[in-house]
Amino acid sequence: MNRELGLQLIEKVKIVAIVRGVEEQHIEGLADALVSGGVPIMEVTLNTPGALGMIERLQARFGEQMYIGAGTVVDVDDAQKALDAGASYLVTPNTDEQVIRYAVERGAPIFPGAMTPTEVVKAWKAGATAVKIFPGASLGIGYIKELMGPLNHIPLMAVGGVNEDNIAEFMKIGCYGVGIGGSLVNLKEIAAGNFGWVRDKAARLVERSRG
């Protein structure tokens, strides 16, 4: 999926599934479940064993229907390896202007993590597609809403602490999107082969996100 279509998908669905710690044998079943549940956007974190190989496999099978990126990209070396493996976009846990500029040079959307207003602005000026507020669970929805006052020209994503009960609130305050990990990509259910659980959870999140 090309950049334009991928970004349109994020703007429409607004939910990115964060895949961390999933075994390679389950990755395609997980992808099927997410697509069936209405969440065709996923990032495979690079601290997941076999992440680069998983990205390659996912692109080969699901590249036309899913927007597949790499997460936990902490330096330029990570960024290069992820893009070379076929990642369509990058997500970082921190604000590293060198990594952001590298992604821009490669024509890849990048969603860097930031905590403070200073980091948010630095990330945006360096070329971020949107800025991920992290750790969202600790900072809370009120913090993100406050940032949107003076920084309303910068699209912000919430990662951490987003669930069925509060996803509508994040949408209501105007988040560009949300990243959801363990509460959607549940390792216990996936290890048991219960992909229907993931599909149903994804569907509920999509429904709740639309109020």
From TrEMBL:
Keyword Lyase found: yes
Domain of life: Bacteria
GO molecular function terms listed in the Swiss-Prot or TrEMBL record: lyase activity
Pathway: Carbohydrate acid metabolism
Signal peptide positions on this chain: none
Entry keyword set: Carbohydrate metabolism, Lyase
InterPro entries found in the cross-reference section: Aldlse_KDPG_KHG (IPR000887), Aldolase_TIM (IPR013785)
Similarity section: Belongs to the KHG/KDPG aldolase family.
Summary of subunit composition and partner proteins: Homotrimer.
The protein, known as: 2-dehydro-3-deoxyphosphogluconate aldolase / (4S)-4-hydroxy-2-oxoglutarate aldolase
Lineage: Bacteria, Bacillati, Bacillota, Bacilli, Bacillales
